[in-house]
Amino acid sequence: xxxxxxxxxxxxxxxxxxxxxxxxxxxxxxxxxxxxxxxxxxxxxxxxxxxxxxxxxxxxxxxxxxxxxxxxxxxxxxxxxxxxxxxxxxxxxxxxxxxxxxxxxxxxxxxxxxxxxxxxxxxxxxxxxxxxxxxxxxxxxxxxxxxxxxxxxxxxxxxxxxxxxxxxxxxxxxxxxxxxxxxxxxxxxxxxxxxxxxxxxxxxxxxxxxxxxxxxxxxxxxxxxxxxxxxxxxxxxxxxxxxxxxxxxxxxxxxxxxxxxxxxxxxxxxxxxxxxxxxxxxxxxxxxxxxxxxxxxxxxxxxxxxxxxxxxxxxxxxxxxxxxxxxxxxxxxxxxxxxxxxxxxxxxxxxxxxxxxxxxxxxxxxxxxxxxxxxxxxxxxxxxxxxxxxxx
Length: 392
Description:
By secondary structure, this protein is an alpha/beta fold. It folds into 2 domains: 12-62 and 179-244 and 336-390, FAD/NAD(P)-binding domain (3-Layer(bba) Sandwich); 113-174 and 247-332, D-Amino Acid Oxidase, Chain A, domain 2 (2-Layer Sandwich), CATH 3.30.9.10. Helices cover 31% and strands 24% of the residues. It has helices spanning 12-17, 34-45, 74-79, 84-89, 91-108, 125-140, 150-156, 178-191, 231-236, 301-314, 358-374, and strands spanning 27-30, 50-54, 67-68, 118-122, 145-149, 166-170, 174-175, 195-198, 201-205, 209-212, 217-219, 222-225, 245-254, 264-267, 273-276, 282-285, 323-333, 339-343, 346-353. The strands form 4 sheets. The protein has an 8-stranded mixed β-sheet with strand order 5-6-4-14-15-16-13-17, sandwiched between helices. Strands 8-2-1-12-19-18 form a 6-stranded mixed β-sheet. A hairpin with a 5-residue loop joins strand 15 and strand 16 (282-285). Helix 2 (34-45) runs parallel beside helix 11. The longest helix has 18 residues, at 91-108.
C-alpha cells in the first residue's frame, strides 16, 4: 500500500530533499518516455514522491516504437561496426528486457504483446552466410536462434517474396502495441500519485536541481535523467558531457489487414522492419532517414517511397494496402551500450540511457535506475553500464 503524506526517506539524498515534507519530490525524473516512465512507476511503488518532467515533443515520444529487439540488428552492424562489440556484449540484457516487458504486461493487463520470434530475412547465399556467422555470435551469448532455409521459412512465413532464400529466427524477439502499452503505463503512474509536469530542462545543478528553458528551477532529493538524446547537453552543464545524439528516422503504418505476419521482421542487408499489430495494421520502418528540423524532424519523401516499396518487395501482399499515416521520430545513439549510473561530479544525479533499441530495454533500465535511487539491488549488474567510461 502506498504511504500517504511524507514518506520515510530511503536514502540520505531523500532525507535532505524532503525536510518536514517539503515541496521538492524525492526524485525528479527528467524525460517521460518508456525509461523515465517505468522508473517513475518503480519509485512510486516503493513509496517515493516522484515528479516527471517531460518536454512533450511528438518526435520524442515512445509512440514511435513497439519492436522488442534481441538479435543483433544488421542496420547497426552496417552503420556502426566499431560499436558492434558493445551491443554484442549486452545481448543477455535484451533477453532479460523482453521478459521484463512480459511481466509488465501480465501485471497491467496486456499490451497486445506477442512473442512469436523475429525473422531476419536473406536474399542471397552471401546474406545467409552473414546470418550464419551472426547467429553463432548470438548463440554464444545465450540468445535462442536458428537458421531456416526457404522451405523452413515457408512453414512460418508463407507471405515472403520470391527473392527471399532463407532467414534467421530469433525466438526471443517480439512486438507490442506501443500506444496501448504507453497508455496503460501512464494510467498506472497516475494512480500511484506520480506528478507529471510539462517543460524542457536545459541544465542541471549539483544540489540537485533542473533549470528549465522558461527560467524555472525544480529542486529534488535526486534527479533521474532519462532524456534520451537530450541527456548529453544536460550532463555537460555538470562537467560530464555524454555523446548522446538524435538520429531522425522515418516510420509508416498501413490500413488494417487480415492477420498474416506473426513475427518481427528485419532483413540481413536492407533497411526494413515490419510488424503487424493486433489491430491488423502493419508498421513499416527500418532506419530510413527523416529530415532533421526544429523542434521536430520532418518526413523525407524519398524515405516514404523507398521504405514502402521495399516492404512490398519483401512481402508482396502488402502492395495492395494503403499507407494511412507516416511520421518522423528520433532514435538515440550513444556507443551501443546502456549508460546507467551516478555522475561523478554530482552524486545525486543518475543517468539512465538505454543502449541500442531503447524501447526494448526501457522498462528494465528504468527499474534498475529506480533501484539505484532507492539504494536497493538493481535487477542486473550495472557496472558495465557506468557512464564514467566517457570521462575516464
